[in-house]
Design goal:
Elements: E1 5-10, E2 13-18, H1 29-44, E3 50-55, E4 59-61, H2 84-100, E5 106-110, E6 113-115, H3 117-123, E7 127-131, E8 135-137, H4 151-159, H5 161-170, E9 174-175, H6 176-181, E10 187-189, H7 194-206, H8 210-223, H9 228-242, H10 246-257
Parallel strand pairs: 2-3, 3-5, 4-6, 5-7, 6-8, 7-10
Antiparallel strand pairs: 1-2, 8-9
Helix pairs in contact: 1-2, 4-5, 8-9
The structure holds ligand T3D.
Ligand T3D binds at residues 23-24, 26, 62-67, 71, 84, 87-88, 113, 115-117, 137, 139-140, 143, 145, 148.
């Protein structure tokens, strides 16, 4: 564990809190490594059936810590420190890939501003809830960069090309209400209700057939570049596998007997 990342468990729900509130939870290399480590631990722990990611203080995450010497712009004397590509490859890419391949559903509880990589890491969650006062900003163009942490891939999928370009190029702050209305996030909730709603939602997901929920993520993401027939075949393969799993047996039996199902696959 690390002071910059807090981990808590409530029933089957693991919560990871970004915890550098004085710096708006902006990401240092140490913090990126600790976040990845916390995700690895959650992925490996069979007691975890849903994950919540959130931030401490008034921000969700302000993206890369721009005070970190590792990302200082090259100025001739400082050229060796300026390989942003390496920072992305070593720290952000593994984090995004890990989030998108978690064996459990991932809920982002966006408690405040989510900027740059902080926005795209939030949007990488399966379900994004945001407090009414939270906001999303693709801050990259303000400092001469392109959306990273999956922004170029996620944004057009979430909101379409026109809005993806507007958000990425103009880098305007988008309030949570508007983010909900354009389909960037699932739901905007009153500030005071965010933590409770995220916990309730995650507990609900944890009681669902988690293996099927996770299979959906890959199927829906991949379908964007598959033909209809290839997507149908992918669905058939998934139903074939899930149809032999415990949760399907349990779900159908519970339905027939009019009782509540107890799902256990992960
Ligand atoms: O660089 C690479 O390695 C490539 C990787 C890139 C990934 C990225 O994430 S690039 C994008 C980096 N993030 C940003 O550009 C966002 C910068 N921050 C902001 O635009 C604003 O701070 C916010 C919109 C997030 C919040 O605005 P506001 O008005 O609510 O707060 P503030 O006053 O701007 O910030 C409060 C403090 O946090 C302030 O420090 P101070 O003056 O009180 O000592 C500010 O400097 C600090 N802060 C905010 N964001 C960052 C930060 N310090 C370091 N890094 C930050 N990203």
């Amino acid at each position: 564990a690390s002071a910059s990342i807090r981990v808590a468990q409530q029933g089957a729900v693991r919560t990871i809190t970004l915890n550098r509130p004085a710096a708006l939870n902006s990401l240092t290399r140490e913090m990126l490594a600790a976040w990845l480590d916390a995700l690895e631990q959650a992925a490996a722990d069979p007691a975890v059936r849903a994950l919540v990611i959130t931030g401490a203080g008034r921000a969700f995450c302000a993206g890369q810590d721009l005070a970190d010497p590792a990302v200082a712009p090259a100025d001739g004397a400082n050229v060796a420190h300026a390989d942003l590509g390496r920072v992305i490859e070593d720290s952000y890419r593994p984090l995004v890939l890990r989030l998108r391949s978690m064996p459990v559903p991932v809920v982002a509880a966006v408690n405040g501003v989510a900027a740059g990589a902080g926005a795209n890491l939030a949007l990488a969650a399966d379900i994004v809830l945001a407090a009414e006062s939270a906001s999303f900003i693709q801050a990259f163009s303000k400092i001469g960069l392109v959306p990273d942490s999956g922004g170029t891939w996620l944004l057009p999928r979430l909101v379409g090309r026109a809005r993806a370009f507007g958000l990425a190029m103009l880098a305007e702050k988008l309030g949570a209400r508007e983010a909900e209305s354009i389909g960037l996030i699932w739901k905007c909730v009153p500030d005071a209700a965010l933590a409770r709603e995220a916990e309730t939602l995650a507990q609900r997901l944890a009681a669902m057939p988690v293996r099927a929920l996770v299979a959906m993520r890959g199927a829906i993401d991949d379908a964007a570049h598959l033909t209809l027939d290839a997507a149908l075949m992918r669905e058939a393969a998934l139903q074939r596998a899930l149809g032999h799993a415990h949760d399907y047996l349990e779900g159908v039996d519970a339905f027939r007997r009019k009782r509540a199902p107890i799902f256990t696959d992960r």
